[in-house]
Amino acid sequence: MKRLRFIAIFLTGIVLFTGCFRDDSEKLQEQEQRDLKNYLAEHNITQSPTASGLYIIPETDDTTGLKPTINNVVEFEYTGKLVDGTVFGTTDSAVAKDNDIYYSNVVYGTVRLLLSNSIIGLQEGFQLMHEGEKATLILPSDLAYGGNSIGAIGPYKTLIFDIHLWHVITDPASYEQNLIQNFLDSNNYNVEPTESGLYYIEKVSGNDTLIKEGNYVDMYYKGYFLDGRVFDSNFGEDNPIRILIPNENLIDGWNEGLKLMSKGSEGTLIVPYSMAFGSNGTPDFYVFPWYIGPYMTLIFDIKIVGVH
User: Fold this and answer.
1) Using one digit for the tens of pLDDT, what is the confidence trace for 248-268?
2) Which of 57, 103, 124, 196 has the highest Cβ tally under 10 A?
3) For position 22, what pLDDT does the model report?
4) Are residues 154 and 187 in the same domain?
């Protein structure tokens, strides 16, 4: 189940102390300033930047919503592009297709971000927005990736984010628990969680022998969010996946939840974020195509076809 492994990405920088490197760096930074100046002029942007150099251009007048703080989670939609119009990331599937960056394994729609884990420009920009507001943020490279190259983002590139801030989540635990309860209620599930907080809803009973540690399990599964968006599935494939229980490459929700099932059983696991990808989620939403945000509850429909 390679898609549900926790992936750690470490960005390392190599500093070359040569005159050539410094010259190239200075030229790129000078070009960035020229490109940014031209972009502002072409788009008639007359707002002054903040002290850090960030530009924020509001697109709506609603300033009644809650403002996030650095320790909050924000839930939003966005399109990110360079000053030359190159789109490097988006939550809109139509925009992704139009710009040839569509991935079939991406879950398009709102994403979450823990502000303290984001780049400096987004940390500042989001804290200047209100829940429900739309705005464009223009981040010079020293507020983004500086001299690093990340995917389609080259060194010393200004980033532009068109953002719709949907929700400011101040208490992720309570927020997710309310969403879980709403999911249970809307589906008429009357079930109590295990001590860890995991929910299991049996749909089809199997044999009387529960899966135990040391078993290999053949299974089909579909993973989706509480709002129904599917992020992974092997239903419809010719062969089930086979996994060993327990397995350090699996989320805790599977290592515990599958032991509530048996050969022939079918059911649904509701996995709280503490047993999935936790407070960080998977890698950055604006760099990597496969992303699960922080504090996300995951749901899995599972069918056990073999136990060995």
Assistant:
1) 999 999 999 999 999 999 999
2) 124
3) 62
4) no
CA 232/CA 262 separation, integer angstroms: 22
Rounded mean pLDDT, 24-38: 96
Structural element, H or E, at residue 204: strand 199-204
Spatial CB neighbours of 130, under 8 Å, sequence gap ≥ 6: 62, 63, 64, 65, 66, 67, 165
The CATH number of residue 200's host domain is 3.10.50.40
Q: Do 133 and 190 have their domain in common?
A: no
CA distance linking residue 163 with residue 55, whole number of Å: 13
Judged by DSSP in three states, 222 sits in strand
**Residue 70 CB neighbours (<10 A):** 12
Note whether 75 and 111 are within 8 A (CB): yes
Residue 85 carries which side chain, given as an amino acid letter?
G
Give the range of the structural domain holding residue 222, as residue numbers without chain letter: 172-307
- pLDDT band at 112; cut points 50, 70, 90: very high
Q: Yes or no: say if 182 and 246 are a contact pair by the CB < 8 Å rule.
A: no
Average the pLDDT over 284-300 and give the result.
80
> Domain total for the chain?
2
H or E element in which residue 132 lies: none
